[in-house]
Specification:
Elements: H1 4-25, H2 27-42, H3 46-54, H4 60-81, H5 90-109, H6 113-141, H7 147-175, H8 178-197, H9 200-203
Helix pairs in contact: 1-2, 2-6, 2-7, 3-8, 4-6, 5-6, 5-8, 7-8
């Protein structure tokens, strides 16, 4: 009788091996893999940090409700926008990510709740557009016979990093203020996007 644990370990090792091979062979997949994992960790607590900023304003409950709605509204516009706005190279996606993070910097220093909410809508719209290309690269790059296992490993890594990042970043926000930590996170995200632009392998990665 086969040992389920041994089978899981062997499957996991095979998935890791396949993932390493893909990272070496596909610049597009490597580009999305590195960028998504890094930013998933950094931006894991952004929603909580922005909620903490809104809490300092009067009518917090109303602003929090609008914030929650705008998160979905921006994505609802950004996802279909991906079929209209065609990104061709990694450079365009990196510049979009840098612009996105730059807007988060404005949220951290802005003192008008309505302007913050307007910026939130634009940010999530851009994130929806970015998400279309990130997911499509993963989907089309992975071989069909490996998609289930590698997709599972990829999503597991993202989930683990988001869990750890959220705990760490919210802890830091308890030592400083949500606005200060959000500013630091957004500035780091901008710098990462700009730093990766310097890597030709990622900059020239084909998106479509």
């Amino acid at each position: 009788m086969a040992n389920p644990l041994l089978g899981f370990i062997q499957s996991f090792k095979a998935s890791v091996g396949n993932l390493r091979s893909l990272l070496k062979a596909s610049s597009a997949f490597a580009f999305i893999f590195v960028l998504t994992l890094t930013l998933s960790f950094l931006n894991s607590a952004n929603t909580l940090l922005i909620t903490g900023i809104l809490r300092s304003f009067k009518l917090f409950a109303i602003y929090a409700g609008l914030f929650s709605s705008l998160l979905y509204a921006g994505l609802a516009v950004g996802y279909p926008l991906g079929s209209v706005v065609r990104l061709r190279r990694g450079l365009q996606l990196l510049l979009l990510g840098a612009a996105d993070s730059s807007l988060v910097l404005l949220v951290a220093v802005e003192h008008s709740p309505l302007l913050i909410l307007a910026i939130i809508f634009i940010i999530t719209l851009m994130e929806g557009l970015e998400g279309v290309y990130s997911e499509s690269i993963v989907f089309y790059t992975l071989p069909k016979e490996m998609y289930g296992r590698l997709s599972s490993l990829y999503q597991s890594l993202i989930t683990i990093l988001m869990t750890v990042g959220s705990l760490l970043i919210t802890y830091l926000a308890s030592l400083q203020t949500p606005a200060h930590i959000l500013f630091a996170v957004a500035l780091t995200s901008v710098m990462i996007n700009l730093a990766i632009i310097g890597r030709k392998r990622f900059r020239d990665a084909p998106l479509t």
